[in-house]
TrEMBL record, chain A:
PANTHER family the record matches: GLUTAMYL-TRNA GLN AMIDOTRANSFERASE SUBUNIT B MITOCHONDRIAL AND PROKARYOTIC PET112-RELATED, GLUTAMYL-TRNA(GLN) AMIDOTRANSFERASE SUBUNIT B, MITOCHONDRIAL
Keyword Nucleotide-binding annotated: yes
Domain of life: Eukaryota
Entry's Gene Ontology molecular function annotations: ATP binding; glutaminyl-tRNA synthase (glutamine-hydrolyzing) activity
A GO-annotated cellular component: glutamyl-tRNA(Gln) amidotransferase complex
Swiss-Prot/TrEMBL keywords: ATP-binding, Ligase, Mitochondrion, Nucleotide-binding, Protein biosynthesis, Transit peptide
Reactions that this protein is recorded to catalyse: L-glutamyl-tRNA(Gln) + L-glutamine + ATP + H2O = L-glutaminyl-tRNA(Gln) + L-glutamate + ADP + phosphate + H(+); L-aspartyl-tRNA(Asn) + L-glutamine + ATP + H2O = L-asparaginyl-tRNA(Asn) + L-glutamate + ADP + phosphate + 2 H(+)
Subcellular localization: Mitochondrion
Taxonomic lineage of the native organism: Eukaryota, Metazoa, Chordata, Craniata, Vertebrata
HAMAP family: GatB
Protein name: Glutamyl-tRNA(Gln) amidotransferase subunit B, mitochondrial
Record's function text: Allows the formation of correctly charged Gln-tRNA(Gln) through the transamidation of misacylated Glu-tRNA(Gln) in the mitochondria. The reaction takes place in the presence of glutamine and ATP through an activated gamma-phospho-Glu-tRNA(Gln).
Automatic annotation (TrEMBL), chain B:
Protein function: Allows the formation of correctly charged Gln-tRNA(Gln) through the transamidation of misacylated Glu-tRNA(Gln) in the mitochondria. The reaction takes place in the presence of glutamine and ATP through an activated gamma-phospho-Glu-tRNA(Gln).
Keywords: ATP-binding, Ligase, Mitochondrion, Nucleotide-binding, Protein biosynthesis
Gene behind the chain: Qrsl1
Gene3D superfamilies for the chain: Amidase signature (AS) domain
Domain of life from the UniProt record: Eukaryota
Any one of the GO BP annotations: glutaminyl-tRNAGln biosynthesis via transamidation
Name recorded for this polypeptide: Glutamyl-tRNA(Gln) amidotransferase subunit A, mitochondrial
Location of this chain's protein in the cell: Mitochondrion
UniProt xrefs under Pfam families: Amidase
Species whose genome carries this gene: Octodon degus (Degu)
EC supergroup of this enzyme: ligase
Ranges where the Amidase domain occurs: 23-487
Catalytic activity: L-glutamyl-tRNA(Gln) + L-glutamine + ATP + H2O = L-glutaminyl-tRNA(Gln) + L-glutamate + ADP + phosphate + H(+)
InterPro entries per record: Amidase (IPR000120), Amidase_dom (IPR023631), AS_sf (IPR036928), GatA (IPR004412)
SUPFAM superfamilies (alphabetical): Amidase signature (AS) enzymes (SSF75304)
Amino acid sequence: MAAPMLRRVGLGRLWGFAWVDGGSGHRRGSPNGSTSSRRREQSSVAQQPLHTAQKPRKGGHKWAAVVGLEIHAQISSNSKLFSGSQVSFMAPPNSLVSFFDASLPGTLPVLNRRCVEAAVMTGLALNCHINKKSLFDRKHYFYSDLPAGYQITQQRLPIAANGSLTYGVFMGNKQSRMATKTVRIRQIQLEQDSGKSLHDDLRSQTLIDLNRAGVGLLEVVLEPDLCCGEEAAAVIKELQLILQALGTSQANMAEGQLRVDANISVHHPGEPLGVRTEVKNLNSIRFLAKAIDHEIQRQINELESGGEILNETRSFDCKLGCTVPMRDKEGKQDYRFMPEPNLPPLVLYDSASLPAGTESQQVINIDQIRDALPELPSATRERLVRRYGMLPEHSFTLLNEVGLLQFFQNVMKETRAEPKKVTSWVLNTLLGYLKHHNLAVSESPVTSSALAELLDLLDSKAISSAAAKQVFEELWKGEAKSAAQVVSEKQLELMQDREALEQLCQSTMEGHPQVVTDMKSGNPRAINKLIGLVRKATLNRADPAEIKDILERLSS
Amino acid sequence: MLGRTLREVSVALKQGQITPTELCRKCLSLIQKTKFLNAYITVSEEVALKQAEESEKRYKQGQSLGILDGIPVAVKDNFSTSGIQTTCASNMLKGYIPPFNATVVQKLLDQGALLMGKTNLDEFAMGSGSTDGAFGPVKNPWSYSKQYQEQRRPQSNRKREGTDWLIAGGSSGGSAAAVSAFTCFAALGSDTGGSTRNPAAHCGLVGFKPSYGLVSRHGLIPLVNSMDVPGILTRCVDDTAIVLGVLAGHDPKDSTTVQDPVKPFTVPSLSDVSKLCIGIPKEYLVPELSSEVRSLWSKAADLFESAGAKVIEVSLPHTSYSIVCYHVLCTAEVASNMARFDGLEYGHRCDVNMSTEAMYAATRREGFNDVVRGRILSGNFFLLKENYENYFIKAQKVRRLIANDFVNVFNSGVDILLTPTTLSEAVPFLEFIKEDNRTRSAQDDIFTQAVNMAGLPAVSMPAALSTQGLPIGLQFIGHAFCDQKLLTVAKWFEKQVQFPVLQLQGLMDDCSSVFENETLPSVSVKQ
């Protein structure tokens, strides 16, 4: 079986963007400080030149892009960050709003323990330093879905800082080669989500839904260590997997549980960083990669045609496939940050600093949370590679599809087939069908048990590979038949009756004397033709090797 | 009956000398008769009568909830009361009916107290006279007292025009007037820079500001979150202790309340003060202090000394920076806290519907008075990125120094600080409004706001009547969370000075029946 096709993380683009005019062999200098430049050197991705049409200016100027991300992940918790209201995505508008969420005067914030634990878990998983003391601040701005006129966030002293995230990207066009990279994490802070505004331009009114107002968010701020949409997409995918593994966020972009803003600038290596723009409204990983690459290209075009980049907020228009400036309402915003006076400093403990005699319900112990961390995606992938001898890229694909790893592991539990065979069937056949029919793993009509049974039949040579494909196709119809049932109904078992097979071979040879003559005269294609004819006569139920063996014996 | 203290009337209820309904009706009738004081914004007659009825049932079944059962109380109109309009004396919240009770209100109701109504204040508690509210100024009941009328200089013109009345102090002037005029037995005020102690001093009451964190702020519509505390106004220290005992303690809805369990508040009668050390902060002797208050302050110190207490002069060196620092921190938090009043979720909304921004602007212009708007403006100025370091951060540092001043003094062995509460006795309204709110607040909060920045407990005690026949209060300041000790000392002082009861007879003819059979001692400070 051929090596399975790997699906790319970013789906869209097959090129990176860091070094755009073909100077890929050059050593890279980075104005971002040595750390990131060294990191980038690790992967000298061969980049395709993208604007060959544009003449490089004198001195062979190259462009380098600098991309930083800010991610807002909705914390998966029963209740909101500072109130007892339930958190739920599809509830009727304004049905999950406490007095605090609606900012009724006199209400006070009460910090949700679960949200703090989620932030600590995420911080630990992202190799952050967890601050034993962090503070809350108010960030002021007037907006109709921000009832209090300010958002409670952690501007001065966040709960976690100075971390890193390791991710894998595909190298150039060789889709099977992966490079490991690292992006630094500046900080993780706890903050409130806002409500939602629905602007009805026709009636010139705005409808407000406060269900989301006050839901806990983790804001993860990355250092500008990235250089293209593909890297950003890979980082976000990895972060998504980590959050999901931790259970700290469902991290579903389509439902707004994971929102990404990108800060983008371009410059000539060795020169100061360019003016940056912020691109918002990136609600899928695919659009994220597209928007970033588009924005980099736009900035380069702008600069090369003598224009300038404005420090502005742009949004990605997924229909037009480009970024457009957002209507800037107030010009420069001054958020007038102020300490939140109603929340005492958030103090965390570790086993060493835990005061004696404290009940575990009253305090949060960082060490206890660290000990209870689940297996992270990178470890899972290593385990898969080690245990099943899988290619690293296959381990990526298994994790990147929601539920696919579980499916794979379930099949493994129930089948005697080789891990490689199982991997191949899951990644090629099953995933191929799912993609073709646009289904999620959980919607697969072929259950893991059915596939395991099928692979057992194949493994015991009860059916041929070709027959197995046929069985799979039958199973896909979802008619609640077992693989064995399909095999027996369609009579797909390999012919075990040697005598009958010999008879079939005999009669096929008799029916095609010319081919037999050709075969005997040494034409290698002739025997294959005969094998094909016999297989057809057996309805694909015979082992081609055995047929060949018989044919050769009969003709000798 | 109405002239009695809370403790006394509670005994009367228990012994059946009067029923809760009778008591409630008497208070309601007096509220009506003293309407001209403008002490109440909302009189919750129906609610009170219904509560009285239920209280009466409990008494009949011998199942009274305790000492507060059936006791009429009043609550400043910046505490949220479920189902009862809560306005903060602002057009912004006119007609706003909260769907929940402030924790302190709920605790009073849980003890069977009768809520007579919501009392008047300066808009959003920003002021020191109770003159700057959307419902008009509060008049000090002492304006109509026998004591004042007999002593004051004749000003016949004003008297005829009815404009010669005195301010009640503020911002909890309505609560002070309500208790002072015997329309209830205790009232809740709020105290951010002196708003409970100041009107208590002007109205001859005990005005108590608990330690920050001892009493829940949940439901109190904030002025400055880091300084606000619910305050208690009563006619004697024991009554304050009873109310504090009910209110104090951790509230899961207010993360700034202390976790430690609070012991019940009993205030013993102190017979020996010889182990006490009373500090007299020298910085509080300011030129603006009236000679009468100054001499009374000195007499009070002598009183302690002659009883065997150690009285020493102490220094709070950063006092002079306090009022400016308070101004910066206060306005910054005001700017932030007032941001929620945008007309969307509750409260006033203007008719402008051009855009959301235009709606915000017009709503806030119409809803807030000049004082509130002025503080919002300056607060936002202090919080601007370019000013933050120079104003807000600096003010926070000064606040720390001021708090440390107190810590240092208390660490040196001082138990209680004794200071004036106000510069002088209550002034006539026409006199008061000659200066703007900001100037007045800066002057009137001078002795009180530092305590809020340090989070300490303090109580203003009525000490004596001035030569004009008006109350003068002195302030006692205690160690943080030593509220009980503070009240114990205050109670000793109360016993020594025998402050006179307000005499309204003859001047409020209709009320005469209310006060009959009351003994009205009139003794000034014992020498």
